[in-house]
Structure formats: C-alpha cells, structure tokens
Amino acid sequence: MKIGILHDTLNPAGGAEMFCFNAMRALKERDHEVLLATIEKTDWLKLETIMSECPRPDVEIPLTDTTYLPFQTELSLLEPMVLRRLANQCDIIIQTHCGIMPIGDILVFNDLPPASVLSDALTEGNSNSGTFKLLRRVYSRPYALIYKHLMSKVPDDRIFTVSKFISTVVYNTVHKNPITIYPAISTEAFTKVQNSRKKDGSVLVCGRFSEEKNLDLVLDVASRIPDVRFSIVGTVNNGSSRNYYMKIKNRVESERITNVDLATNLPFQTLLKYFETADIIFSARINEPLGASVIEGMAAGLVPIVHRSGGPWLDSVGTEEKFGYSYCTVEAAAGAIQHVIRDDYLRSTIAKRNISRVQMFSKTEFSKRFSSEVERIASAKDWKRHGT
Predict the structure, then answer these.
(1) Residues 162 and 201 grouped into a single domain
(2) By C-alpha distance, which of 236, 254, 253, 237 is closest to 245?
(3) pLDDT digits 0-9 by tens, 275-309
C-alpha cells in the first residue's frame, strides 16, 4: 500500500517530528511504501546529528527547496497545496502534525488543537504568534466554527492523539472521541545511561527553545535555589527560536543567574551526557501535550518534576505521583527539587518504578498499534477518502 505522510516541517526536531519518523519506520517495516510531503525541505544532515534516529521515506516531496522558512507558524496554511501533491499518488494520507486545518484521511494530534478553538485556560502560558494571534483577535469565532465543522466530518476512529490529555482536550473542544496511541520514545539509549550515571545533583531542562516552553519559569525557580545547578538544553532552528534563546540568555546574564547553563543543537551523544549527570528532569510548559524529554529522563533514571497540567502530569508522572512530582507555583517547584536532591533513597525508588513505566512508550508497542490502526482504516469496507 502507498501511504502518504503530511508534515509541514521536520526541522524543529521535536516530539511531533519523532512521531513522524517512527510512523514512517513502522509502516515501512510492514512493507508499505511511504511518501513524505513537507513544506520545508528537510535538513537531514542536522537531524541525523541531533536525533537518536531519523528513518527516511521511500519518496520525499518538499513544496519548497528552502530548508528554513522565516514564518514557521504560517507553514500550515500551505498544507492544502502539499496535500494535492499526495492525493493522486497514495492510497491513504496521514497528517502527522495537525495545523490550522484538519486535512488528510487520518489526523494525528501531537499538539493541542489550534488556539482559536481552545479555552483561555488551555492557552495559558503559551504565547502563540503570527497567524494564531491574528485569528484569536479578529477571526477567532468564525475560524473556530469552520474548524469544528471540518472536524465534525472526520470519523472518531480516524483521529489519533499521542496522550490521554490531548484526547480529553479534543473531546471537550470538537466533541470527538479519538484513539490514544502513545508515541515511540527512544528509551533504549537513555536506559543505558543508568549504568554509567555520575550524579551531580543538577536539574535538566530539555526541549526546543520556543516561547511555549515557558523557560522564564525555569529561571525564576533557579533564582530561588542558587545552590542547585540547572542545564537548559535545546534546539534552535529558526528566527523565532533564536530570538527566544537570546531572550533567555540575556536574562541569565543581566540578572546574573550563575547556576544556569544553556546549550543548543547538541549532537545526540553529547546530549546523553547531560542525562548521565542530572538527578531531575524538569518541565516548565503549562499544558504540555506529552513531553518526550520527560519520558527520556525517566528512562535514564531521572526524577521528573512537571507542571500540574498536560501530558507530563496525566500520562507520564500520573496524578497519584508515584513516578515523580508536580507543582503549580515557583515556590512549590523549588521545594520539590530540593526535596528530591536531598533524598538518595527517594530518587532510587522512583527511578526503579519508572523502568517499567516507560515501557508503554516502546517502539515495539507503538509499531504494532499504529500500523494495525492504519491498516484497519484502509481495509474497512466503508473506506472513503475524507473530504470526497
């Protein structure tokens, strides 16, 4: 079967991109031909350096020859043009990064639905720019109506999410009951780190440099506990992320927050060394959809401390907090960090629990579940391309 995958750009190298890579791998293992359509040209050389693995499609169809376009938020506006390139070549099309409009035969929500259809509570802490700000200020209501109308035509079983948290949001906003398929996280490489750990009592924050990651909160917490070392490690891949990185860097320097280190675009093997030494993996984003770095940290034996919202809390740490801790305020975050760092037995106990916890994000489990769901939809007797 020829399967098309639509993903606006793989270059951010985040959790959504890792899902796309693993989706391609899973489908190719089942002997399907995979066609990948993007808007930006993929920077394979960079991705293969900073990510654990980057399986390639059988055919790649970029809309442009530009590796990094200046207006990242607006890329989704061009997805219908990319879709047309796939439509006549594929038996089924999967949109692995749902953007401004839901298009494709299967929709994968790696993130929350567009800001205009969300409540203010769900957009708290997420500073969207460009198109999303314009939509919220001027066209929010009509856009939301159009979006919900399009979503109403998509059968529930053709909507996938990567966390129970996103499934709940999708149900509450567009009244759909999606299928939750936990993504494959490369836990194997991180699990090996446990055997060579050299703990130094530090806190690791890992992810791309972008405003929704709420890294200012990390600096607020670090300022309150100057005796604890923080490392913020992330990717910088376009103008907006470079600007945000400089904003964080300037604040660290101007406020003399000497216990915070910043590092960008590290090779994967260098990144692993940060996981070898840290005791805590910290997540600052409010309503984080899943938080792949939290799961990677758990696999490496780090104790997760996450905001009491979103996927890191509901799907990874769990509301009973057997696998880590949560916080709502800067003071609570600082207190949780100090509590964990001071108690070796506690850290060890949670790390042992998390070995089995991260297995639900294994490649084997993901490949089996994702491939079977795609094949089920494509082989259904009532199969009809969405939108026809």
Answers:
(1) no
(2) 236
(3) 999 999 999 999 999 999 999 999 999 999 999 99
